[in-house]
């Protein structure tokens, strides 16, 4: 069987069905047994008419990154597609409307701007949509029909995917979309002479059991429910709102409560209040909302109350770029608080690990009685993957509170200094468990204590507890060294890790002696593992999606050696191709 690895982009204006077409394509190809990764770009305005791009990578092998350039560009809107031509590979395929509803103005046709190496296919998208349904809304389905015909995809299976996508709509809507697809398919078969070599003909993939076609936000919500979340408070903000939307429907059925608050400050306050009451609680936000929550993060740490904040990063600072991805809240996550304020920070590295990281976040918050930050980004929140069904957490992950025994309750000390730093925590209402909670520095009983010795003892306790978290941390993902030492070691975090690992694998095939390292746990960080990895590498490269190299600064401090940096703030996810080019240069 030949290997399949293709990136298809559909470009149009908001309201033209660009994102819907990309979703149908992804779901159909997943059903055929292929690995898929799709990522959509769209305007920040709620009802805008800006550029939308549905980006889908389809492969017969495992996918770790979305791919930088497209093999195929479908132009539903010539004006927007012209600006997207730079993302089409040399010699790529361009599908455009050969008979638009109205003539283009001068220099407004995408075909006129295409590179001479491009293989163009003119399909009368508007005419066929009008013929199929009496309007132009089905141009996206006509384009999918053309794709199916050109690349020898199963017509019947594709049709069923369209029916499933619009199954809850009226029959006339289903029929118009199906008919538009068929028109595109039949017209292309009868009128287009294929001029490229790409084809799925004869490629038979066997679907491996049930697959979830899901994005990171959906997985976070699913994991929270499976991990016994009982309270969620939040305020809508892109790109985290979907988590709250899902939980608003699902959480009550699990015996939980959802509160939409007036702002993010109220949300984190309510979460800490619920954590104090003994239930698992969380909120989700993005950079601007997290900035508002900063004061309360210190309260969670000082009062030793469990709380979980999901921060889906977007372009910043301030309101920034709401619908573009970035990894620029690293410093804010680790350091934004008054005083010495240790908190746990986790960053899933791919869509599937969003589930594991969420389960772990709720567990660690409860066990270590502290704040846990979960760092996603716009890409992880919204990119769609087909993954195996995640295994639900075991009972040991659902009840992590270390409660006082009968002897301890006789003279209960909420902040008892222990070897691990974890104090027995009596849930309010426990007989004998009356205690004081405060944001002031305090003694073991919880009463305010401003002495230097008391402050030192409690600071040591909090940091001792923080470092103990490493005992529960997932191991870093480290590629095997091909030799005793590597010429280049690539250190990555968050959503850039997949691209980094893929780039290293490709570099090795080219003869570059390389290795890779990534860790879901950012605070406390597995510094010894990183140092051991670094000691075996001649050069270190740190790719990340921020301007200043925030993680590279951190790694440099840990390793006490310089690191090469690869920084992008394009709003797009990290590309394995860019990392590979940098490795070749090094």
Oligomer: single chain
**pLDDT < 50 runs, ≥5 residues:** none
Round the Cα radius of gyration to an integer and report it: 26 Å
Shape: globular
Provide the number of structural domains: 4
Structural class: alpha/beta
Specify the CATH architecture of the largest domain.
3-Layer(aba) Sandwich
Strand tally, please? 20
Query: Could you tell me the mean pLDDT?
Result: 96
How helical, in percent, are the residues? Answer: 25-40%
What is the CA–CA distance across the termini?
A: 35 Å
**Which fold name is given in CATH as the topology of the largest domain?**
Pyruvate-ferredoxin Oxidoreductase, domain 3
Strand order of the largest sheet: 6-5-4-1-3-2-14-7
CATH superfamily of the largest domain: Pyruvate-ferredoxin oxidoreductase, PFOR, domain III
According to CATH, what is the class of the largest domain?
A: Alpha Beta
Features:
586 residues, alpha/beta, Pyruvate-ferredoxin Oxidoreductase, domain 3, Rossmann fold, eight-stranded mixed β-sheet, seven-stranded mixed β-sheet, globular
Short note summarizing the structure:
This protein is an alpha/beta fold and about 575 residues long. It has 4 domains: about 5-210, Pyruvate-ferredoxin Oxidoreductase, domain 3; about 215-395, Rossmann fold, CATH 3.40.50.970; about 405-470, no CATH class; about 475-585, Rossmann fold, CATH 3.40.50.920.
What does this 3D model show about the protein?
There is one protein chain. The protein is of the alpha/beta class and 586 residues long. It folds into four domains: 204 residues, Pyruvate-ferredoxin oxidoreductase, PFOR, domain III (Pyruvate-ferredoxin Oxidoreductase, domain 3, 3-Layer(aba) Sandwich), CATH 3.40.920.10; 183 residues, Rossmann fold, CATH 3.40.50.970; 67 residues, no CATH class; 109 residues, 3-Layer(aba) Sandwich (Rossmann fold). Helices cover 38% and strands 20% of the residues. The protein is built from 20 helices and 20 strands. An eight-stranded mixed beta sheet has the order 6-5-4-1-3-2-14-7. The chain has a seven-stranded mixed beta sheet with strand order 9-8-10-11-13-12-18, with helices on both faces. A five-stranded mixed beta sheet has the order 15-17-16-19-20, sandwiched between helices. Strand 4, helix 2 and strand 5 form a beta-alpha-beta unit. Helix 4 crosses helix 5. The longest helix has 21 residues. The chain is globular and about 85 Å long.
């Amino acid at each position: 069987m030949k290997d399949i690895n293709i990136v298809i982009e559909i470009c149009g204006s908001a309201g033209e069905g660009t994102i819907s077409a990309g979703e149908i394509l992804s779901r159909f190809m997943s059903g055929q047994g292929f690995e898929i990764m799709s990522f959509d770009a769209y305007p920040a305005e709620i009802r805008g008419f800006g550029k939308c791009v549905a980006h889908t990578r389809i492969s017969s092998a495992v996918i770790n990154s979305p791919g930088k350039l497209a093999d195929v560009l479908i132009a539903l809107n010539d004006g927007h597609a012209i600006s997207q031509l730079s993302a089409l590979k040399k010699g790529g395929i361009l599908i455009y409307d050969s008979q638009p509803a109205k003539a283009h103005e001068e220099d407004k046709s995408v075909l006129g701007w295409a590179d001479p190496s491009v293989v163009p296919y003119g399909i009368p998208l508007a005419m066929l949509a009008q013929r199929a349904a009496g309007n132009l809304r089905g141009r996206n389905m006509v384009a999918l029909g053309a794709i199916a015909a050109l690349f020898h995809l199963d017509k019947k299976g594709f049709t069923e995917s369209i029916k499933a996508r619009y199954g809850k709509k009226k029959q006339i809507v289903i029929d118009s979309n199906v008919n538009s697809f068929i028109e595109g398919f039949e017209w292309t078969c009868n009128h287009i002479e294929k001029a490229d070599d790409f084809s799925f003909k004869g490629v038979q993939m066997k679907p491996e059991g049930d697959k979830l076609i899901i994005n990171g936000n959906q997985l976070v919500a699913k994991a929270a429910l499976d991990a016994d979340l009982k309270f969620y408070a939040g305020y809508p903000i892109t790109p985290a709102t979907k988590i709250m939307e899902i939980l608003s429907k699902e959480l009550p059925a699990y015996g939980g409560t959802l509160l939409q608050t007036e702002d993010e400050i109220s949300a984190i306050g309510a979460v800490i209040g619920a954590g104090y009451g003994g239930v698992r609680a969380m909120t989700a936000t993005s950079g601007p909302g997290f900035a508002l929550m900063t004061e309360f993060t210190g309260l969670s740490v000082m009062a030793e109350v469990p709380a979980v904040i999901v921060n889906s990063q977007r372009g910043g600072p301030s309101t920034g770029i709401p619908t573009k991805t970035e990894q620029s809240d690293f410093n804010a996550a680790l350091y934004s608080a008054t005083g010495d304020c240790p908190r746990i920070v986790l960053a899933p590295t791919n869509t599937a690990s969003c589930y594991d990281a969420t389960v772990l976040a709720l567990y660690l918050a409860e066990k270590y009685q502290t704040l846990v930050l979960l760092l996603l980004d716009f890409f992880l929140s919204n990119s769609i993957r087909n993954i195996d069904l995640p295994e639900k957490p075991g009972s040991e992950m659902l009840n992590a509170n270390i409660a006082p025994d009968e002897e301890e309750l006789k003279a209960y000390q909420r902040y008892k200094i222990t070897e691990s730093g974890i104090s027995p925590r009596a849930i309010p209402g426990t007989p004998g468990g009356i205690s004081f909670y405060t944001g002031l520095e305090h003694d073991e009983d919880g009463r305010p204590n401003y002495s230097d010795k008391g402050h030192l003892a409690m600071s040591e306790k909090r940091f001792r507890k923080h470092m103990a978290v490493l005992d529960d941390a997932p191991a870093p993902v480290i590629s095997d060294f091909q030799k005793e030492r590597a010429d280049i070691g690539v250190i990555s975090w968050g959503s850039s890790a997949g691209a980094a690992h893929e780039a290293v694998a490709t570099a090795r095939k080219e003869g570059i002696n390389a290795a890779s390292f990534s860790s879901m746990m950012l605070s406390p960080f597995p510094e010894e593992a990183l140092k051991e990895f670094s000691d075996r590498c001649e050069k270190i490269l740190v790719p990340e999606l921020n301007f200043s190299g925030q993680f590279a600064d951190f790694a440099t401090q840990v390793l006490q050696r310089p690191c090469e940096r690869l920084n992008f703030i394009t709003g797009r996810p990290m590309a394995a191709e860019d990392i590979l080019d940098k490795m070749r240069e090094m």
